[in-house]
């Protein structure tokens, strides 16, 4: 079970975008993910008329390492660490380490 999933609200804790929040758009592999509106770069794209791609300078999000982000805790309004515990009925759930609140209902 992963501690951070697609659709989670996260905060960047280090790097040039430190403190910015966004939703996880997708997980690329075990250690990298795309966050909406974070780590944007300008990429020079060559046009490709066959695929219908216009040329020019395009802004796009680049992957972030999973160690550079933390989940946003709405109760404390801060970034928080996440743990995994097993409930009495055998389900695994994620919870915030600071207040013990369960993320997955």
Care to describe what's here?
By secondary structure, the chain is an all-beta fold. 11% of the residues are buried. The chain has strands at 9-12, 21-27, 32-35, 40-45, 56-61, 64-65, 69-73, 78-80, 82-86, 92-96. It is elongated, with a radius of gyration of 17 Å. It has no helices and ten strands. The chain starts with 8 loop residues before the first strand and ends in a 9-residue tail after the last strand. It has a single domain (9-96), classed as Roll (SH3 type barrels). The strands form three sheets. The chain has a six-stranded antiparallel β-sheet with strand order 6-3-2-1-7-8, with no helix packed on it. The protein has a two-stranded antiparallel sheet with strand order 4-5. A two-stranded antiparallel sheet has the order 9-10.
């Amino acid at each position: 079970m992963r501690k951070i999933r697609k659709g989670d609200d996260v905060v960047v804790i280090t790097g040039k975008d430190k403190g910015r929040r966004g939703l996880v758009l997708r997980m690329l592999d075990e250690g990298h993910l795309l966050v909406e509106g974070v780590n944007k770069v300008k990429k020079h794209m060559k046009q490709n008329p066959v695929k219908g791609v216009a040329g020019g300078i395009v802004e796009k999000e680049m992957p972030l390492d999973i160690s550079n982000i933390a989940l946003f805790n709405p109760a404390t309004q801060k970034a928080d660490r996440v743990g995994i515990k097993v409930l009495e009925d055998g389900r695994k759930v994620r919870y915030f380490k600071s207040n013990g609140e369960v993320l997955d209902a």
